[in-house]
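Lab manual, section 2.4: Encoding a predicted structure.

Procedure: take the sequence of the chain (160 residues), apply the prediction step described in section 2.3, and record the output as structure tokens. A sample record is shown.
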Amino acid sequence: MIKNIHIICFIIFSYSAFSQNIKIEKSPKKAAVYSTIIPGLGQTYTKKYWKIPIIYSGLAGSIYLIQTNQKKYNLYKSTAIQRLNGDYSDEFEYSDTELITLKDFYRRNRDLSYLSFVGIYILNIIDASINAHLLNYDISENISINISPNINKTEVNLRF
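Recorded output:
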């Protein structure tokens, strides 16, 4: 299984390195629109395939954290409401203030998870646009500049 993953990664990186040598004009606006519609589609457009699993891992991780924190938030919130109504039949050994603190903690974490989801989604769009801008950027070893004098010979017509 691990050998297969190494082979697949090698093929993707080799293809990505090969495709960078070809000068192709890509529209940054088009890449941004593609990534806005479907995350990772802009990276496909700019042939940066290796970034797609990173994007989807980040989005899936954020969704998982949103769901987990939402469940715990609902659990501690409903338990705190039950205790305020006089029902102490829950299995928790927390005090009322500890339940409220836990409820607030998981609400804050849920909200931060929403922000991370939105942040990853926006970074996906920005990344696709920047990749399209820099697709033809010269990264060769030759960064020298050649300055040579330019002598313009002009004819001067003198009339007497």
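Check your result against the sample. Helices lie at 2-20, 28-37, 41-45, 52-84, 96-133.
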